[in-house]
Amino acid sequence: VASAVEGISRTLGVCGVLRQTWSRRRGRQSEVALRCPCTQRNAHRGMHHMPSPRILALVTLLILLPLAALSSPSSPSDEEKPLEKLFLSVPSAAGARETLKDITGYDHLAGTEGCRKAALYVRNKLASALAAPGAGVVVEMHTPEVLLQYPVERSVSMVAPEIWEAPLTEDIVDSDTTSDTPWRNLTFNAYSANGNVTAEVVYANYGRPDDFEALEGLGVTVKGKVVMVRYGRCFRGLKVMNAERRGAAAVIIYSDPADDGFTQGKVYPDGPWRPRTGVQRGSAQFASLCAGDVARIYSKASALDLCGYATEDLVPKIPVLPMSWGDAEPILRRLGGADAPGGFQGGLDFPYKLGPGPSVVRVMVESTMKARAIWNVCAVVPGKHYGTEDDRMVLLGNHRDAWVFGASDPNSGTSAMIEVAKGIGRLLRKGWRPHRTMKICSWDGEEYGLLGSTAWGETYEEELRAKAVSYFNMDVAVAGTELVVGASPSLEKLVREAAASLTDPVSGKPLLEAWGGLIRTLGTGSDYTVFLDRIGIPSVDLAFKPQGSNSSYGLYHSVYDSFSWMERVGDPAFEYHALAARLWGLLAIRAAGRSVVEVHPPTVAGRLALYLEELQELRAGRGVCEGHCFEIRR
User: Fold this and answer.
1) Is the pLDDT of residue 63 over 60?
2) What is the DSSP-derived secondary structure letter of residue 172?
3) Active site annotation includes 446
4) Residue of 170, 200, 329, 446 marked active site
5) Under 8 Å CB-to-CB from 142, ≥6 apart: which residues?
């Protein structure tokens, strides 16, 4: 049972607590495997034997009960209240606006001069914000070399039943002052294979395993075909991997208006949703197999050593391109074959067909791979035990690199980070010192596959395992007004208490009430991955997203994710930027400032029991996956 608790706890990010209780290593276990919705490969190795949920909860409580007795007070102490009041007075909408305008004034793709410029900008802003006599703050640069890909040329042409070439460009928007950039003509999926393919088209919905199984059930094969899939429901790299494993010759990933376009509401520049020519760039790396640099140039260990996969198995072997719905429409409209089954129909005004053909397209991709340095920036705020064995760390992180300008993803988070640093700096200048060392980090290379944070985590893994107690991530800080939180169970109580201390700007209600308190289980997808999934550090991910939408914001990874969009549509008053900074910073100073680590063992025990119960239901064939799993098999 202890082995089971340790195995699940590593996934839930409570290893930082458990490893202080016992030190046995988890053995290899393989009898029960959970298969994920987009891959059908083992995503997590389960236990040899599944104890009952009640036994698991009891054992977990017995292990963690001594920590519960040490839990910090649920509300700020008399000593904390004036410090928190001072901190909360600092983050401002005007300050966030200034930072965002500065950093989105130029493109800053990882490995480019723009991203180096942005790194130096953030370094200087952190150093200025945190400057305090005697505090010992230092700002460090970490510059690993990684393998990056950049587009040279690409095209998509229909050669039957009509002759037509896709523009593959994003239109200039007069009211968006940065939209006339060369990058609007260089949309690409990173780590695509180079190639020139001509073949019939097959439409495969979201590119999940069950979508391909539906095609097979209807007698439709994708072998040797150009597979068109739409964005959503599943990471793009997994869409490509699923198609490639079934013999596809190339993949086109397009944005369907049903998911983030006109069916959701007004499109940009009149609203927040994706316009006709908006393209979602993104990495096609198979990051779910092994996140980080596929070549591990900076490391003595290879990807094979670390993850069990060779470099060539972590990137597509076929050409891949992203496409707007405007470019995808002529191809989809001319497909024949069987009618698309339920769930395959998108938002365009014609019945979707599966193919193959009669649409035949030529897909050409030419890119270049380059080994380049990326720039992680970390500000170190020494704690009371800094430099000793008793030192512990609280980490904050946001990535800085963007596919183009990245006003929402990720630089709304960058601007919030600078406001957090200003607030902490104010406390330091008043004489406050955190109990634990704080590290505030601006990661590079996230968009390509979590490259910067993974390199930093792997480089300092031994120290992090010994000292880090929590990691607080903010990627897309602001794309709407609805708070979305993912967290390790041990930190859920801390998040809800912090939210209860703040006010939602629109409703005027306590943020906890406006939000509702729903906390999602973290998996992967942003820079918390190396800390949670590899090292086992309890983590939190925070974001404000579009109200009531199942989609990301409509301008995600497009040239239109710009300061103009944020100022006109996303957060015109920048009040949610300031709120994001207050929430993020309040979590950090409570986690770093209190004498006892902020964890809540009863929540951990309850979650462990719940997750195990769900696994047992699934294995027995009674559970419902609801898109989060595919099947349990012995």
Assistant:
1) no
2) P
3) yes
4) 446
5) 375, 376, 377, 378, 452, 455, 456, 459
